[in-house]
Amino acid sequence: MKKLFWREQLPLILFSVVQIFVVLLVFWFDGYDHPLTASYAIFLGLFILSGYLLYRYYSHWRFYKQLSRPMRSLDESIQHHESAPLPAALSRLMEEQYRQYRNQMQEWERKRKEHLFFMNQWVHQMKTPLSVIEMITQEEDNENYKSISEESDRLRRGLEMVLYMSRLETFEQDFSVEPVSLLEMVKEAVHENKRYFIYSHVYPEVLVDPEITVQTDAKWLRFILLQLLSNAIKYSEGSGQKVTLSASKIEHEREVWLDVIDRGIGIPKSDLNRVFNPFYTGENGRKLKESTGMGLYLVKEVVEKMNHRIELESESGKGTRVRLIFTI
């Protein structure tokens, strides 16, 4: 606080000292030669300057204190108890800026909520005709219908991603921890992707002990597994290989590991550090043209919000292992 005060007043101090000596020089060159009187004049000038600086310091000390310490909240920035004109005027300006900023933020929040509401409504509306299409295509054994069914599956996965992405902002309001059987969750995720497995000529392998349970949110875990399975199938398409889901309990670490392993094209080493970044598709995504770059990003966000961990290992041409780690 004191350093700020002296930095602000330094130009005034230098100006006053120079002014005193300039006046004395004028009298000196005019023939006035009384050193004692000149010394008294210098002392008097510096004394008056010191008095002003003391007044300035004590009349503005709250102002300097507020400017010198870190601000803990926006409300703190508009608190003012100063009667001096400059601090009071600055406080009024800050208060007006804060009021406008708050109004603008409230308007943005209102628009954001409207957007989320619209997205949720739109996704639910799109699910109705999508369900009708799926019912129609299931009734006929036709190659064209199979293609339509495959595309409807892609649409459903895309709509699910949009829905969960909109819910992510209100995660704390839509989160419930309970004991969840990993085997049941894995079976459900595999079942929902069964047509995707068949179309892609990839086969699921489930190696999960039915006794293993974890404390988590079943709905959000389902979303995570669907995203990981979708990626595993997508990047193994046409290989005829297995996608393995295995779980193991690590007693000494007090952890449960759930691995999703594919034997597909793998991830290039240069992309490994960025696969969880939003909108990052990487080399494989640019080849397949279907990747949004949001799947693993959303998975990472959800996993961290649930206080779990996620790890990814991959080698180009040999496949990928994604591991979810639950604390027990």
3D architecture notes:
This protein has 328 residues and is of the alpha+beta class. The chain folds into 3 domains: 2-99, no CATH class; 113-168; 176-327, 2-Layer Sandwich (Heat Shock Protein 90). Helices cover 61% and strands 14% of the residues. It contains 11 helices and 7 strands. The strands form 2 sheets. The chain has a 5-stranded mixed β-sheet, with helices on one face. A two-stranded antiparallel ribbon has the order 1-3. Helix 5 (85-139) runs antiparallel to helix 6 (143-168) and helix 9 runs antiparallel to helix 11. The longest helix has 55 residues, at 85-139. The chain starts with a helix and ends with a strand. The mean pLDDT is 81.
How many domains make up the coordinates? 3
What strand order characterises the main sheet? Answer: 2-4-5-7-6
Number of strand elements? 7
Rg for CA atoms: 35 Å
Helical segment count: 11
In the CATH hierarchy, the architecture of the largest domain is 2-Layer Sandwich
Tell me the series of helices and strands, N- to C-terminal. HHHHHHEHHEEHEEHHEE
Which runs of at least 5 residues are low in confidence (pLDDT < 50)? Answer: none
| CATH superfamily descriptor of the largest domain | Histidine kinase-like ATPase, C-terminal domain
